[in-house]
Amino acid sequence: REAAATASLQREKEACRDAEKQLGDAAEGGRETRLRHDLAAAFVLAFEKDETWLGLQERSSEVDQIGELRASLLEQLSRLPQLSPQDLSRLRELDRAALQASAKLEAMSTGVRILRAPQGVILDHKPVVEGESVVLSDAAELVVGETKLLITPGGGSSLAAARRSDSDARDALAKELQRHALDGVEQAAGVLARRQDLELQLKAQEARWKSLGGDVIKGQLAAASLAKDTARADLGRRHAVLPSGGLPRRDPVSLAGAREA
After folding, report:
1. Contact 128/134 with Cβ under 8 angstroms?
2. Which of 47, 75, 86, 164 has the most Cβ atoms closer than 10 angstroms to its Cβ?
């Protein structure tokens, strides 16, 4: 009877030990499951932060390229004379006025054409050859051999006024061209067209720069870089505490793979 009681007690002890072992194994299995789940979540988070950082890095690079292009466009604009459409209109008005004044003066001037000059002709102290035509808006001396003639265009006070108008119109045009550092109206038109083209390009690049968040992208990239490094460090810690027997055979290499794990 005593032997039976001892055997029964031994069986009870073994059963208790088996139960404790099963409970321990179950607890260890639950812990490993949690660790495995946490590791998988850490992989997903790390890949998400990597993708966010890469996207911001690409945007940042594009913003830098746009910045370089904007600087180039601004530098090209700075080399061109300052000129607006209103300035060009003013120059064209002055040019038309100068042409009209010159045409009026020429119409009131006297024309001289040398048909034949065997002895040579000097007009206004300059030699004139056969077939040459000269327009005189002022009195000029004509010398043929020993003969001297004074040729005076008609018009009187009207001619003098026409000369003043012609001079004033040419001076006004010259001053306006000089103010803009230009040589002529045609050059002014070309400069304005070039300025407008560069300004359109600059406006387009500035719109792209703003759409990419050019004013905040550097801060966003720095924050994303910190978040990426933090997620990778957390992944490393979780990887280290998982029992080696419970590690996956191969770590995921992409966000999709991490989500499937």
Report:
1. yes
2. 47
